[in-house]
Amino acid sequence: MPMKVRAITRALPLLALMQPAAAGADVVTLSPVADTYIRGGSQNSNEGDQTFLRVQRLGPKRSLVRFSQAEIGAAVNGGTLVAATLELYVEAANSWGTSGRPVDVHRVTEDWTELGATWNCPNDTNTGNSNPDCPVLWDGGSFDATPTDTMVQTNDLLGPVQFDVTADVAAFLSGTPNYGWLVKKQSESTDGFVDYTSREGTAGQSPKLILEVEFPTPTPTATPTPTSACPAQPLNGCRQQIQEGAGILKLKDPAGNPARRTLVWRWTKGEQTSIAEFGNPLADTAYTLCIYDAAAGTPQLAFTAIVPPAGTCNNKPCWQAKESGFLYRDPMAATAGIATVKLVAGADGKARAVVRGKGTALPLPALPLQQDQTVVAQLKHTGGQCWESRYTSPALRNEPELFKDRNDGPLPSPTPTASPV
Hints:
Helices cover about 5% and strands about 40% of the residues. The protein is mainly beta. The strands form 5 sheets. Strands 1, 2, 3, 5, 7, 10, 12 and 13 form an 8-stranded mixed sheet that branches. Strands 20-21-22-23-15-14-27-26 form an 8-stranded antiparallel sheet, with no helix packed on it. A hairpin with an 8-residue loop joins strand 21 and strand 22. The radius of gyration is 29 Å and the shape is elongated. About 40% of the residues are buried.
């Protein structure tokens, strides 16, 4: 199945791109909701606002990090957890001996707060008085004595380091309370200190929880109804662009690299179109982009891309209702290579439609186009309405890897509705 990649940041869950670690799995990257380190030598001090997390013999010092259980659940919802990795960024390290020494990560078993955690307390209610202000002390953290994972830190090991925390995250998903992890030296009687970047530190270096999730293969979309297909000849009476050169048709097909195919069709400064005339793609209105080349003045169907109604893309509805129209979004461009369709209703000169496509699924025609003399692009839906652009020779660019041209002015006396399919 196509890869879906998401990232959830500290302030607001958002999507961001990463590469998958395994074919067929989505990679979801979460940012922490809390991190700090605790100091055995200053047992009632809190370091929750520091830009680093420290692990060290002297003190000793141990680090804490936690990720939102709600975000973990949302990331895996409907899928199967394949792997979970805690990634920390080493910004300084020293005194680890000639061959390095092990650092362990442990699952924390008691709740704590970023601005209240100290060596003595999981949540000290007054960290400014040098006293433990908590009902129950935890003496350096409450955690599972068996390490979840171990890595060997050396003096020259800087940058990202990773711990396998798959078993812990699976336990969180099964109901075990999620209080995050504690990171400590395996032997706190030996030398060695390391500073990891905290969530308050350098952007891009904060702790990460990287989840690999497999989702079921989606049910194939039903075969479009016959009225979704492009007719052999362009429709009559489609809505026109009232301003010459306002829109563009761009087809790009780099030789030997179908993954970089792109299509852009912008129908702007268009004739008046109401929202009702767009139909209801959230339920039952399919859209089709049809492009006709011409030879000796005779149109020939060169491109068809059908966008079905409803459906899910990247585990979200493909179509969304907007204030002035509709938006189709498929980041993977899995259906006919179409990534977005934007439909905006408006008065004359305000209505617009945009279609963008990309990738190997995009069935571009062979380039250059003949354009003898006019290329016609029409966006139509199953209700019979359509929107049209015409591009008369010579094009701005018409080459073996690129066709690009701006639209002609409107046809004389356009009719308000399209002929039935």
